[in-house]
Amino acid sequence: MILHPDDVDAWVRAIESADRPGLGSKARTGAVPLVRTCLPELAAAGLIPAAAAG
User: pLDDT at residue 8 above 90?
Assistant: First the structure.
C-alpha cells in the first residue's frame, strides 16, 4: 500500500481497515531490541529530574 505522507485521512482509513490481528504485538516485539533507555541522558542534560532517571 502506498499512501501520500500528508494524506492523514487516507492513513486513518488504512489503519482502521487493516485486517492484521497481532500486528501491534509483533511490531513491538521486533522493536524491543532496537530501543534503549535514554532517561539517564535526559537527566544529565537537565531535561528531566535526576530522580526520574532511576
Answer: yes
From the list 53, 19, 51, 16, the residue with the least C-alpha distance to 38 is: 53
- Mean pLDDT for the stretch of residues 34-39: 83
Q: What letters, b where the CB count within 10 A reaches 16 and e where it falls short, cover 2-15?
A: eeeeeeeeeeeeee
pTM: 0.38
CA distances from 53 to 31, 33, 50 (A): 22, 20, 5
**Residue 39 neighbours by CB distance under 10 Å:** 13
pLDDT score, position 48: 87
What DSSP string describes 20-45? -TTHHHHHHHHHGGG----HHHHHHT
